[in-house]
Amino acid sequence: MRKIILSISLCILMLLSGTSCSDYLNIVPEGTPTMDNAFSNRINAFKFLHTCYSYLPNFDNGGNAIGFLAGDEHWLMPKGTGFIDQRISLDSWEIGRGAQNSNNPYKNYWDGGYGGNNLWIAIRDCNIFLENIHKPKDVEDYERQRWISEIKFLKAFYHFYLFQLYGPIPIMDTNIPVDAGVEEARCYRDPIDEVVSYISNLLNESTEHLPLKILDEGEEMGRITQPIAKAVRAQLLVLAASPLFNGNPDYSNVKDNKGRSLFPLNYDENKWKVAADAALDAIETSEEAGHELYYFRESLKISDATRKLLDIGEAVTERWNKEVIWGSTRNSNGLQTQAMAKLTTGRYYEARSVLGPTLTVAEGFYSSNGVPISEDKGEFWSKKYPERYQTSLIANEGNNMYYMEVGQQTANLHFYREPRFYASLAFDRGTWYGSGFKDDTQAYLAKYRFRRTEVSGMQGSEDYSYTGYLNKKVCSYKSNLTNNGWTAYRYAFPIIRLADLYLMYAEALNESLSAPNEEVYKYIDLVRTRAGIPDVKMAWHTYSKFPNKPLSREGLREIIRMERLNELACEGKRFWDLRRWKIELPNEIRGWNVKGETVETFYRISVLFERTKFSYKDFLWPIKVEAIQKNPNLVQNPGW
Prior knowledge:
Strand order of the largest sheet: 1-2
Radius of gyration: 25 Å
Distance between the termini: 46 Å
Strand content: 5-15%
Structural class: mainly alpha
Number of helices: 26
Largest sheet: 2 strands, antiparallel
Number of strands: 16
Mean pLDDT: 91
Low-confidence stretches: 1-32
């Protein structure tokens, strides 16, 4: 005899495959656990809870996490060379290369495939949990309520992640019974405002029984808390208020076959006010829970200059530090292996050294005066900006002795930059303070040498940076590389950290006002102070060619955006921010000439890749053509 599980959603399965109604029946052979078995006791129900967590996307792997390679933040050596497809997953990079398509989409989180998990299955399982969690008798009420809140968060987050990729999506609040008709199962995409309202309300509901913070850190780190739920709600509402979804004229004619407009037709400034309120609520809850900006306090014999780099870098790589609101529990070792450079103190085969930030990212960091290098009217940059790709000798003065290899030549672009530049990027003739260093004098600092045949550079056909930079920020100074092997310090990669939330609030508040107020400056400056650069108004007044820029909403908008790009650089956030701001990616990816063996040949600008022109369709993921054919109620995204 066979048993039929009746709780599978016809609508979700229609989204998955579009097959006939008889194919939806989930036939389970005799002896296989049914839903009653899955919720027969606390242990089995807890396993199902973990199943619902298991669908979370990957945030902490250079190839699997979308943000690292789908845009212009990092680049890899050419396909088919250097075993690159064995070093790192290429699905996200195919999107960055302009190869996204509607026949077999990359990072397909709608149907599953090409590096994406089917999140409709995740939502289905969340609904199954909510429908059945009343059954186990040995679960205490307080624990049951907490589990329900966690599942409501996960269900909301999976909807949010799909919304982030596809825009309008079907709202799957409940699973449809298996005996529903085919037409009932053919779902429609819901308008964006309805989707956002649904996710926002569900996130609010989820906070009711979530803990303020994790008390049993040995067993429960990574589980959802109130600050996480509120931070994701802020992220949702900031996205909904941003140019991509707030009155975007490119999508004004998109309607479903009911005639409903799926995108908001008009810009609504009040959405920024709602987003600002949500971000402030998340900040206050996070700070109540003990979250704070990270400052490095370990007693090492190091200079203030190096300590500032560790303030910045360890905010990402110190395990469960108080700045991390939501951290990934997956293993961060793979990301470090992809990003770690080989150094002057050993051969380090285990360092794959492939995750290379682009020249665009390197140029975007501020000067040491805290303003864009193109605007800096100080002595160095007012003269050297036109010569930024030329080289100079690294003198034994200022912070050079901590940040660079004294007595060597490097690009002018690498001098007098803000600490976040040196904390985020490994560059030719830069220094590394990890691998068991004793102090930060030149004698003990390891050195990066990126020219061809050099230790950090292109020694053969594999394992080198194609841009001339590597992602230093995601590599913990506690990870140890020696000739005998590689010992990685495992940490919880930050999905959301407090600095991110501060800048979300500053952005939303600035957009909701006719002119900036002191509250906006306060939250920008909290981040800038930790980064070791002057307050925003002082920096522009003193060092910039455009001293009044921070005084207007439009000028401060530009500053806040650059602040986010620099503070969150090399963490996979740039892709998502540029997208929601409707900023097109450049056609050219640039780096240094890594085949050059000398100063003269290495420091030449190299166009690493030219892709087809970015267009409005590239801001949203396509739905697979096959899914559209099988469910004609689904409308394809514009341009696909």
